[in-house]
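QA checklist item 7 of 12: single-chain prediction sanity check.
[x] sequence parsed
[x] length recorded as 646
[x] structure emitted
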Amino acid sequence: MAFLKFNKSELVNLAYSLKREILSANKTGAYCNTSIVTCNTRRYHGLLAVTLDRFGGDRFLLLSDVDETLIVNGKQFNLGIHCYGDVYEPRGHKYVVDFSADPVPQITCKVGEILFRKSIVLAPDRDQVLVKYEILESPAPVTLQLRPYLAFRNIHDLTHENPQANMAGTEIPGGMTFRLYTEFPDLHLQLSDAKAKFTASPYWNYNITYSDEYRRGFDCREDLVVPGWFEVRMKAGDALVLSASLQQEEASALKRRFTSCVKAAGEITSFHDQLCRCADTLITNHNGRRKINAGLSWLYTGLLRETLLALPGLTLHGLKDPGQFEEILDNLIADNQERFFRRTTQVEAPLLLAGVLQQYIDYGADEKKVWKKYGATVRGVVESYLPGVRAEVSMQPNGLLWAQMDGVALSWMNAYIDGRAVTERAGYQVETNAFWYNSVCFAMEMAAKYDGADGAAFAAKWTPVRDLIRSNYQRTFWNPARGCLADYVDNSGQVMDIRPNQIYALDVKYSPVDEELAPSILRVIDNELVTARGLRTLSPRDARYQAVYEGAQRERDLAYHGGSTRPFLLRPYVAVSLRIKGASFLKRAEWLTEGFYADLGKHGVGAFSELYDGDPPHEPHGAISSALCTAALLSVEYMLDQYKED
């Protein structure tokens, strides 16, 4: 990725390098994530985290780190780096002279006259990470020692010294196997050099501190097992590959394996290529079931709302793969029967299905086949919002949906502080009811076309409901004095928080808002919410506005939906703006995406972040590779290309 730029002189500056993260993920659900100087700053950081079915499909960190020590002429130079409170020791970052991510992360160190490089690649098809060590220059032979740091714990947890840990290993060809706890699988550590030796000297390394967790006010210290060290003699021009894998590898083939994995990574020649690579890594195929990971490295896989929002962008507009679209959607429906048809705290999420299918049809899918396959699900979702089915949300006599569950945030704005919802939004929600109207209209149209007499009866039954929604939506949400829609309406009336949710009332195919009101609504969004990194979640004119997403958990939760910008909202915003403003909006739309490419060299290197600060310079935060952001950028790119062609 030659277009990824780094300030080489700043690499030894921890304030610079610790904010930039290496991230790789594969189809098995494994990932590798650390900073560009391989100092772990989050509990989620590590060289190999894997998905384990035996623990319910959660991800577990097995190999946290590997410290490298160079010994030359009797002198030792430790290239590792760990944080202990306010102290970094050893300080291996001071030797770093270069970092690149093309085609895989490479860190180059200079120790006197020795030039040393390590490259990290995650295997695309198995739970395996490979690290290649090269002595590029050296006037004398070098002894390389490698000390693995073992965790064997859930990625959300921390581990500490305990008597249950089995710190002894078992020798295997080319290395050692470790299993700290009986319920875990074996971790095989193997080297490509048959002359490498392992010296057992197990101990607990205490109080490693994760600075990002400390800064956020979380538990931040843990103890890791160092079982000993591997040692091998090397000279200038030599290369060594270390493999950490859940299966025993052929040690003599590790160099070939590394080369094939690098080749499989493919060449990146454009920002579109990078978007598509991110899209592909966010789709897992664990046990042959494709799902979307909401965000690496700590968000979950297979979430209902996030999957529906990201699905068209990742699979259709990015990868151009309708087969993956349907496979992921089929798995999502199978896994979420309860949420689709009976109850969910994401009240708008099931209603997103109609819009997803509309995008699929617009992409070119045969609408008759689409309806034949998914029509029963759409109709079932619509029926589930009738009175008496769901406790958390129900259609009222005016046709609109009222969502309320005391103390529970029933929309995507679902942050909590001390168990209390920050943005509860109980009542009539502007976006939920827009999705509701669109779903009813879509179901009626398709049923009337393709379901025969039964479809005609369905359409006849729902016509009065559709008309009720249409006649009451605008009068409920429209505020002529403000020139926009209320964010929600509760028992006290309209709540005029200026938030981005109202964009969906204009974006849905069947809009419940008169077209002549759209320019006014869009003008308010333009003036108060649009930034160079997406739409703010709250207007800066609001007294509750939080300009930056920083600080302890409380401060960040207040900013999460209280000012931080969300890139995924660019998809509906650009779609609406193109429709209303036409070709004059093209340059503006292109500008809105350019900043994300400028940010590829920070936060997640080569990845697209979940959210940004509401105020300039709009620093990135949240999940370092977000399915929603990646999908939105792919969809915007697709829309702009289609618009230009038309």
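[x] summary fact logged: The mean pLDDT is 96.
[ ] second reviewer sign-off
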